[in-house]
Specification:
Elements lengths: L9 E2 L4 H8 L7 E6 L4 H20 L4 H22 L2 E6 L2 E6 L7 E4 L3 E10 L4 H4 L17 E8 L25 E8 L4 H13 L7 H5 L3 E2 L7 H4 L1 H10 L1
Parallel strand pairs: 1-2, 6-9
Antiparallel strand pairs: 2-3, 3-4, 4-5, 6-7, 7-8
Length: 249
């Protein structure tokens, strides 16, 4: 199926902010897939349990039932802000690149055009937060760092893209020359509590439509590899990432 044939967006909801940012980069094409990282059910139960603990603590302490009930709106607001910001990480797959990072209030994601993307590096790993331990000094974790519930991850190597603002794009509508300080490719990863199958599938579909010989990518990437976090195991557990980072040196 060609990119022109994409008629619907897969994955999670396309928010207004996603549409606005994607519209700033028409050279990346249309939105194909949205992979969000909302709080997991466990995260919500922990937040609810903490709120109840605070309310009960106030009731049993110097406060009373009324004082406890007055704290509930503040606890809800506090929980909404914390979980909302932690769960605002997204990957938006477009025809010719990605928006990846936080879509929280006042924050913007990074742009990673596929021409800066090492296709052969795509890896699915668990727990993804250990990736940084396995490639010390060779990569920079740029997304997926905040959500404690994000154990499953999809990682890849790409040039460090600019923050998604129009000033980084030249008048011809394409990305201009990179700052020499940003040319080294780095490790990116997106963490989620859900299975990474649909994100890997969306990446494969977009890359195949661009002519990359990656048909069957999901068969090589999935199921996820369980990683130890030990640098000595990197060559055997995440060889695609290691090889790509070695090529970037």
């Amino acid at each position: 199926m060609s990119a022109a044939g994409v008629s619907s967006v897969t994955g999670d909801r396309v928010t207004g902010k996603i549409r606005r940012i994607a519209a700033e980069f028409p050279e990346l094409g249309r939105i194909r897939h949205v992979e969000a990282n909302p709080p997991s059910p466990t995260a919500w139960w922990v937040a609810i349990g903490f709120s109840l603990f605070v309310v009960v603590g106030i009731t049993l302490g110097n406060g009373g039932i009324v004082d406890s009930l007055l704290q509930i709106p503040w606890l809800i607001l506090f929980g909404w802000i914390i979980l909302g910001y932690m769960g605002a990480e997204k990957v938006v797959v477009l025809d010719r690149g990605l928006l990846i990072g936080s879509f929280a209030l006042f924050l913007r994601p990074h742009v990673v055009p596929f021409d800066r993307f090492d296709v052969a590096s795509i890896t699915a790993a668990r727990p993804a937060w250990k990736l940084g331990r396995m490639v010390p000094g060779r990569g920079l974790l740029t997304t997926g760092r905040t959500a404690v519930w994000a154990w499953n991850g999809v990682a890849f190597v790409a040039a460090l893209g600019p923050v998604a603002r129009r000033k980084y794009v030249d008048m011809a509508g394409t990305f201009g020359a990179e700052d020499p300080a940003r040319r080294q490719r780095v490790l990116w990863w997106f963490g989620t509590w859900r299975q990474p199958d649909r994100l890997v599938g969306a990446l494969e579909s977009a890359l195949v439509d661009l002519g990359h010989p990656v048909a069957g990518l999901a068969q090589h990437v999935l199921p996820m590899v369980r990683i130890s976090g030990n640098p000595a195991d990197a060559g055997g557990q995440i060889p695609r990432l290691v090889a790509a980072l070695e090529r970037s040196v």
